[in-house]
Amino acid sequence: MDQASLTQDPIKAKHRAMWAMGDYDRVSVEVVGGLGPVLVDAAGIAPGEEVLDVAAGSGNASIPAAALGARVVASDLTPELVETGRQRAEKLGLALDWEVADAEHLPFADDRFDVTMSCVGVMFAPFHQPVADELVRVTRPGGRIALVNWTPEGFIGQLFAAMKPFAAAPPPGATPGPQWGVEEHVRRLFGDRVSGVRAERRLLAVDRFTSGEEFRDYFAAHYGPTIAAYRNVADDPERTAALDQILVDLAETHGVTSGSFGWEYLLLVADVA
User: Locate the Methyltransferase type domain: which residues (predicted)?
Assistant: First the structure.
């Protein structure tokens, strides 16, 4: 899909705008920064390998992969995040290729990459099967697909479930993003095109917040999907107050005040047949 099509497609335009809200780069650095290196390590990325990071954001996984000496292409739907990542990489003296691209229509040749990865990125594309098809298509036979995605039962999966009544309706036929955190779902998406699947659920320890209110205020200011939910009910003070309380309660239920605030994710690596 070319840039004109991305701009004209209302679903893509909506997603681009949502992730440009607030400051997701800050979230990726301050809160979930540990996920990128975990993914790069699990993928076994080596110097000289051709690596594609899909829905890369500002480079949570791309930059650590490039620091190892891989030849990295970082792609994302949101130009603002791509530009932020480019600037950060330049300051670090790392050479990456940065591309604005749609995970459902990747502008790369078949069998190009040794490793194709995504760190809590592709899960937010509304239609899962075309994304899975593209991940396989661009990865060479014998290469690896490596993914980190939030689980439905974990904190972020529950966050999206809690925000759903307050958010705009998803496009018809869309699948909830946290399904990418279910091993059986991902296996079905890839089918017999992959083998040797290694998958495990892990916890990301988050120590950025000391109260439910602090978590709520931070995500309401910086995290695009939360900002979008608040904007969707901005004209309804009762619903806004309800969303306020739900986010506080959710964070407290998951241990934000206890020092054991853990966000569950699925780490999955598969070999392309």
Answer: 52-146
How far CA 262 is from CA of 26, 51, 155, 222, 236, in Å, comes to 19, 29, 7, 20, 32
**The CATH number of the domain covering residues in 3-157+167-206+263-272:** 3.40.50.150
**Do residues 64 and 40 touch, judged by C-beta distance below 8 A?**
yes
Domain ranges of the chain: 3-157+167-206+263-272
Residues with Cβ within 8 Å of residue 197, at least 6 apart in sequence = 183, 187, 190, 268, 269, 270
Q: Which two tokens stand for residue 35?
A: 């996920």
Q: What is the pLDDT of residues 137-194, one digit of tens each?
A: 999 999 999 999 999 999 999 999 999 999 999 999 999 999 999 999 999 999 999 9
Largest CA distance in the chain: 55
Calpha distance 160→176 (Å, rounded): 9
Tokens of 243: 């969303």
| 183 CB-side CA count, 13 A | 11
